[in-house]
Predict the 3D structure of the following.
Amino acid sequence: MKKDISPAVINRLPRYYRYLGDLKEHDVVRISSRELSERMHVTASQIRQDLNNFGGFGQQGYGYNVATLQEEIGKILGLDRSYNLVIVGSGNLGQALANYTDFERRGFFVRALFDKDEKKVGKVVRGIKVLPIDELEKYLKENKVDIAALAIPRTDAPSVASVLTNNGVKAIWNFAHTDLHVPNGVFVQNVHLIEGLMQLSYKLTNDGADEE
């Protein structure tokens, strides 16, 4: 039976992966949970508990082999395979996503861009031609797409999400400022940029308020 893992643990895994990658780039071979906790500002016991959900990976008195641990976390995150990604919306955000070469280093390959603006259709972004949104369904039927990124207005997002899910896309990276209602078995990761700014605004506005 598959073990249920807390969403909080899953959300920390990419951060572990990133920190371990930085350590590997600096030729660090092994690290203890205490040393890792000092770098990440997460308690050593939390790190051990998180990793024990997947088997532990450490050795008493030795700590963790950095390269091995990063590789194992990569496997848990599914980074030992590649993913086909399409971007719907080729405005500034969509083009920025398409131009971000680090995706490919992690196995995420942008295969196509779509837009409803005739002025954008036909343009080439890092070697990828922008296709008309009317061709999205045909493309999905003819090509395997694992993830779709939505960089479009909120009013367009629900209908585009329906086209995606009706044609086999199981994961949506949603930059549209709206919550999507999708069928069971489809995963949505929301990135509401303005909400992050609102949280910063709150912290700036309420800085020191509790101390008064």
